[in-house]
């Protein structure tokens, strides 16, 4: 059994690695052609272009690995079937259950690799990529759309009430440093009480481990004083009810941790599973729409299972006899089946967001459907072919 396992594992892993390298080389070339147009701007040299393309490969690998796994497994198993090696293994005692178990072990190993890439390597490479690009940008940071990224928190008061604080972040320099920050504080009646604008903010964890401290620089602090906040002297002397102050630095206490802030400015597909979970909890606690991030959280949670679906889709090709003809067409059909799975996975997310489906259902439905389809084909081939 050890020899059988070594043969199947070695053949599949070798073909999957070759397909993954081919895809990576293709996308590296595409990224290089796209980035080389900026060569020479603000000191952007050739080695900077190469490092940028290397950092981009993390997200490409995460997106393309399931397809590489499917194509590589189909090529490997089809080759074993074409050379009659798999037929010999079957006559030697390799039953359908054992074959499914061997490929299941490969799928579990691939799923573990996907968990590592999606939760550690991709977030790290995306952060390094943004820091690297910021060195050669006139904006000195990643611009977050026309209106920036918006966050909200409820600040409790001693009398049992609360104030609503809205934070706008215009751009991100790194995971804990942001630019063009605006802070708006409202009372329970929705009246604006305070506006703070800063050119830059560095977010650090609080001393007690809860919340964070925003170290604001080049600050303009505007406070609107309502009559219940004005002193008796202010009313008598008819002082202005708006106080505007400019300071170099200001420390602002907040419950928005660096992880929550960095999660809000990153694209959802580049965030780790834990960061998505924390951010969805923050959005839900502040009565903000969280379904988009919930769907992405469940997609990333179920994404390693895609590897099991891919090897399950490839297994029936080991039971197709090459002498029956049309092997190339069957392999092409299997590859198109895998591409259709990726397409259905993306469409399901958008449909779930549009029709307000349960997030876990929108994320898990394509995997469950294609796994059922592959197992049905496998059982039919074993039984009738």
Shape: elongated
The radius of gyration computed from the alpha-carbon positions, rounded to a whole number of angstroms, is 28 Å
Could you give a short account of the major beta sheet?
7 strands, antiparallel
Helix content: 55-70%
Q: In terms of per-residue confidence, which ranges show pLDDT below 50 for 5 or more consecutive residues?
A: 234-238
Average pLDDT, rounded to a whole number, is 79
Number of helices: 10
Strand content: 15-25%
The SS-based structural class is alpha+beta
Q: List the helices and strands in order.
A: HHHHEEEEEEHEHHHHH
Cα distance, first to last residue?
24 Å
Give structural notes.
With 385 residues, this protein is α+β, with helices and mostly antiparallel strands. It has a domain at 148-258. It is 58% helix and 19% strand. The protein has 10 helices and 7 strands. It has helices at residues 2-35, 46-82, 85-91, 96-134, 232-236, 258-265, 273-285, 291-314, 327-355, 359-384, and strands at 142-143, 149-156, 162-174, 177-186, 192-205, 212-224, 242-254. Strands 1, 2, 3, 4, 5, 6 and 7 form a 7-stranded antiparallel beta sheet that branches. β5 (192-205) and β6 (212-224) form a beta hairpin. α8 packs parallel to α10 (359-384) and α9 packs antiparallel against α10 (359-384). The longest helix is centred in the first third of the chain and has 39 residues, at 96-134. It is elongated. The two termini are 24 Å apart. Residues 234-238 have low confidence and may be disordered.
């Amino acid at each position: 059994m050890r020899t059988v396992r070594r043969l199947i594992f070695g053949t599949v892993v070798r073909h999957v690695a070759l397909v993954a390298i081919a895809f990576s080389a293709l996308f590296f070339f595409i990224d290089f052609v796209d980035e080389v147009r900026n060569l020479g701007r603000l000191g952007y040299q050739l080695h900077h272009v190469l490092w940028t393309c290397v950092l981009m490969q993390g997200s490409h690998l995460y997106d393309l690995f399931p397809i590489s796994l499917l194509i590589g497994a189909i090529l490997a198993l089809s080759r074993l079937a074409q050379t009659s090696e798999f037929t010999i293994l079957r006559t030697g005692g390799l039953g359908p259950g054992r074959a499914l178990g061997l490929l299941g072990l490969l799928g579990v190993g691939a799923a573990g690799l996907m968990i590592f890439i999606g939760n550690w390597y991709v977030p790290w490479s995306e952060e390094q990529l943004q820091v690297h690009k910021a060195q050669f940008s006139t904006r000195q940071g990643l611009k977050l759309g026309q209106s920036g990224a918006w966050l909200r928190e409820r600040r409790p008061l001693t009398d049992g009430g609360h104030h609503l604080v809205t934070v706008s972040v215009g751009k991100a320099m790194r995971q804990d440093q942001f630019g063009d920050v605006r802070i708006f504080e409202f009372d329970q009646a929705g009246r604006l009480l305070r506006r703070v604008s800063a050119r830059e903010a560095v977010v650090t964890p609080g001393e007690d481990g809860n919340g964070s401290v925003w170290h604001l620089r080049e600050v303009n602090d505007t406070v609107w004083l309502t009559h219940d906040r004005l002193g008796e002297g202010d009313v008598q002397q008819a002082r202005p009810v708006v106080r505007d102050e400019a300071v170099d630095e200001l420390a602002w206490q907040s419950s928005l941790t660096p992880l929550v802030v960095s999660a809000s400015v990153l694209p959802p597909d580049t965030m780790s599973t834990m960061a998505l979970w924390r951010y969805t909890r923050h959005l839900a606690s502040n009565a903000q729409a969280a379904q988009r991030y919930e769907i992405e959280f469940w997609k990333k949670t179920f994404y390693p299972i895609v590897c099991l679906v891919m090897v399950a889709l490839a297994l029936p090709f080991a039971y197709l006899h090459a002498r029956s003809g049309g092997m190339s067409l069957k392999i092409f059909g299997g590859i198109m089946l895998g591409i259709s799975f990726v397409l259905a996975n993306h469409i399901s997310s958008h449909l779930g967001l549009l029709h307000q489906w349960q997030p876990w259902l929108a994320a898990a439905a394509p995997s469950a459907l294609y796994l059922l389809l592959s197992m049905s084909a496998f059982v039919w081939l074993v039984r009738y072919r």
